[in-house]
Amino acid sequence: MGIHIGGSKGAMADMNVVPLIDILLVLIIIFMVITPLTPKGLEALVPQPSPNQQQPSPEILSKTVVVQVSSGGKLKINQEEHTWETLGPRLETIFKERAEKVAFVKGDDSVLFMDVAHAIDIMRGAGIDKVGLITAKLEAGQ
Fold first, then answer.
1. pTM confidence score
2. Distance between CA 129 and CA 6 in Å, rounded?
3. Any idea what DSSP says for residue 108?
4. Domains of the chain (ranges plus CATH)?
5. What are the mean pLDDT values of the chain's consecutive 10-residue runs (142 residues total)?
6. Exposed/middle/buried for 91, CB within 10 Å: 0-12, 13-18, 19+?
């Protein structure tokens, strides 16, 4: 492939590929922008307040597992005191026989999210499929 400058042979018909490359680059950029990004993060279910503000039945309360993270690194599973080391094994024994592996996390206002995320990570490691978050507004029924 050489360059022909002048000459007595007449007009030359070479294909100009620069516009073709420009069009392809624009199409690549368009498809990169249009492609939806996958969300990253922890999947969580937030319990919805009941519309008539009734108290849940005792059967539902006995099945519900709530891990409470308090300030100072204190942990509770349904009002039962635990440490970070005993949280995972205790949750495994609770959910060993259950078909529905759903639990909730409740964090105090003064607790860092890092501690709540650590509790969620331990819960997921214990085999819990769905982890919901309980907030102060949901507890108040708002």
1. 0.57
2. 75
3. -
4. 58-140 (3.30.420.270)
5. 61 79 93 74 65 58 80 85 89 85 87 89 89 75 60
6. buried
